[in-house]
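Need tokens for this chain, all 124 residues.
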Amino acid sequence: MFAITVHTSFSAGHQLKFPAGPEPYHIHDWQVDTVLAGENLDRNGLLFDFNEIKKILDDIVASFNDRTLEDLDCFKNINTSAENVAKYIFTSIKNELPANITLVSVEVTEAPGCKAKYSEKLSF
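Here are the structure tokens for all 124 residues:
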């Protein structure tokens, strides 16, 4: 089994809502790591082209950059936790991959030491 990891980042603000009230609005420099896996390499010796997955990932998070996440349609009516951001990115990437490539996980770092990972199978 082969696996590759691609990283990107974006800057965005958010404000989680809790029953006791919302937290203060704040901005993070979010970090995103995406792991792909598969059994076979292509004729070029690649599992999946780094540039291609980086473009897919960057296109997904481009609308987040310098925005308030709650203002985006994709996060209407859900808390913009790192967990929900990771799940949204995961689902969006999965729809762009060929059948022979498995999306293993998307890990979102909201702040140093504070990460959330989403995977369809608990393998981490």
